[in-house]
Amino acid sequence: MRTQVGIVGAGPAGLMLSHLLHLQGIESVVVESRSRAYVEQRVRAGVLEQGSVDLLCRTGLGERLRREGMRHEGIELRFDGESHRVPMTELTGRAITVYGQQEVVKDLIAARLAAGGTILFDTEAVRLSDLDSAPVVHLRRDGRDEELHCDIVAGCDGFHGISRGAVPEGVLRTYERTYPFAWLGVLAAAPPAVDELIYANHERGFALHSLRSPQISRLYLQVAPDEDIADWPDERIWAELRARLETVPGWSLNEGPILEKGITPMRSFVVEPMQWQRLFLAGDAVHIVPPTGAKGMNLALADVALLGEALAAWYGEGRTDLLESYSETALRRVWRAQHFSWWMTSMLHRLAADDPYEARLQSATLRYVTTSRAYATSLAENYVGLPWQDLAGRIADEPGLPAGGVR
Q1: Residue 15 · residue 120 · CB < 8 Å
Q2: In what order do the strands lie in the sheet with 70-72?
Q3: What gap in Å lies between CA 407 and CA 404, rounded to an integer?
Q4: Strand order in 75-79's β-sheet?
Q5: What are the transmembrane regions (predicted)?
Q6: Which of 122, 231, 329, 396 is the most exposed place for a label (fewest CB within 10 A)?
Q7: What residues form DSSP beta bridges with 57?
Q8: How many CB atoms lie within 10 A of CB 239?
């Protein structure tokens, strides 16, 4: 097989890059080891920054997002038995939209297939070769070995994919931090008891009340990193959520059947550079953030918006400057998101159960955030997403494409 850009991974990054390239008349093939049903049902992040919403809408992917996405103009911080709202839209003019990652993936897959795009599901990318001149993605499909020849390879295959490992030892620098706790997350068939997300700092540990729809709640608890999910029956989960969230008089959780539950370790991870020869890396393949700041999917979309623009300039005008600066430009946003995610995580989680000094520092920080307009604005502008540098400006100007975000 032959294409212009070979894309490894059919998550939000890989699919969005394929969509952006299509709008510029550039061919691509997406390779995905899992089935279509698996990637469309995989529950992950659910908060879209304003820039991500605008990108989806102005590239023709906003119809269902406008109809089903839930726009939030603030978040709630709970600590010391009090509740404080951070009015994000009032402070920044922007908002977030709750719309599950799997819904973004469904919309992208539908758009690519409707446009005649090629997505090879159930196809394993085994290795990459000839990245210096004429890249080849070596595939295993239906028991057969195949080759995908291309000009460029985009590695969007996540932390455990093959793309990052194709870079020779000694080229990449790794920066990481492992946190002494994990998140126990549940999806519950219970109408959310909130209109906006609640982040709770509690002596028993952090808790988060989020939502996926008017009928489905998404909830999280801070737990030990070696916790066994078998030790958390539904009754224990609800009891712990009540203890950490029902700290404000007159407010209570809505409970219901738990549909899914799992434990996710917390870590920060960055690899530099994000490119080597004709291989360009994006998303979780090169950076992971704690989910506290809701940045994972948004960073992935920002990466490929940059990469798509750079590839359009290369194919259309023969320009190499944007491809050469891709890593440096993307990493500026990555490290800002790393800091914000670390800060939110450190402020809200109990780092050590027996450290009263740390607990008092967290209370002091939270009180300052909720009483200082400047500090609240800093939190708000990072949470809704710092303005994109018109990363997809060329696409936004295409005739016939809708402009603007969810209103």
Answers
A1: no
A2: 47-48, 96-98, 70-72
A3: 8
A4: 82-86, 75-79, 198-200, 207-211, 217-223, 173-188, 258-272, 287-288
A5: none
A6: 231
A7: none
A8: 11
326 in active site: no
Of the residues 291, 315, 326, 349, which is catalytic?
291
* From 22, 295, 326, 349, active-site residue: 295
Domain spans, the chain: 5-71+96-176+267-352+388-396
72 an active-site residue? Answer: yes
∠325-326-330 over CA atoms, to 5°? 115
Location of structure tokens 């001149």:
133
199 in active site: yes
Catalytic residue list contains 261: no
**Model confidence over 78-121: pLDDT tens digits?**
999 999 999 999 999 999 999 989 999 999 999 999 999 999 99
User: Does residue 110 sit in helix, strand or coil?
Assistant: helix
What is 5-71+96-176+267-352+388-396's CATH number?
A: 3.50.50.60
Given 22, 72, 287, 349, the catalytic residue: 72
**Residues 223-232: pLDDT tens digits?**
999 999 999 9
Cα 75 from Cα 370, distance rounded (Å): 11
Selecting among 19, 179, 192, 199, the annotated active-site residue is 199
Beta bridge partners of 281: 155
pLDDT digits (tens, 9 = 90+) for 253-285: 999 999 999 999 999 999 999 999 999 999 999
Q: Is 153 helix (H, G, I), strand (E, B) or coil?
A: strand
Weakest-pLDDT range from 260-269, 361-370, 390-399? 390-399
State the Cα–Cα distance between residues 135 and 167, nearest whole angstrom: 13
User: What is the mean pLDDT of the segment spanning 26-41?
Assistant: 96
The per-residue pLDDT for 387 is 81
